Amino acid sequence: MKSWLLLAGLVIMVSAPNLAFAASEKQPVPNHSKHFKKDRKQELLRLVKTYTPEKTREWETALQRRKELKEKQHQNYEKDRNELAGLRKQWKEQKLPDEIIRKNSREWRDSKHKGHHHPDRKRVLQDLKHALKEKDETSIKESLNSMLKRVQNRNKELEKRLK
């Protein structure tokens, strides 16, 4: 009987801190990225309507086209993933070293995703934020126009890549 009580006490002593920790642990934050993107798009369109109303239609068209291209790109992702898996399998059957397989995989990915990096994106956003902070309408208009050109150019790049 004493051993049972001792064992029960030991179990309680060991599990109590863990239970207290689990109860106090923060719950995971749900992913709101779709809502965030939608709010960001609405905020951008609000700025366009305020500062460059003549370009509103162009913006809506460019953003809609961007959405369509991104959906197509996502559909191609599965096809590309399967293609790379097939190539990796072939390379392994040829008994190529892992280092060569990684190098070939990297080169294949790079050939598929040319022009993926866009260093001016951050600068354009910073310019717009600065112009909004300073309430400089001319700079805001320039920033919005350069953003529109960037979105349109990116759409053309995506169209080329998807062909």
TrEMBL record:
<feature type="compositionally biased region" description="Basic and acidic residues">
    <location>
        <begin position="90"/>
        <end position="110"/>
    </location>
</feature>
<feature type="compositionally biased region" description="Basic and acidic residues">
    <location>
        <begin position="154"/>
        <end position="163"/>
    </location>
</feature>
<feature type="compositionally biased region" description="Basic and acidic residues">
    <location>
        <begin position="122"/>
        <end position="140"/>
    </location>
</feature>
<feature type="compositionally biased region" description="Basic residues">
    <location>
        <begin position="111"/>
        <end position="121"/>
    </location>
</feature>
<keyword id="KW-0732">Signal</keyword>
<feature type="region of interest" description="Disordered">
    <location>
        <begin position="70"/>
        <end position="163"/>
    </location>
</feature>
<protein>
    <recommendedName>
        <fullName>DUF3106 domain-containing protein</fullName>
    </recommendedName>
</protein>
<feature type="compositionally biased region" description="Basic and acidic residues">
    <location>
        <begin position="70"/>
        <end position="83"/>
    </location>
</feature>
<feature type="signal peptide">
    <location>
        <begin position="1"/>
        <end position="22"/>
    </location>
</feature>
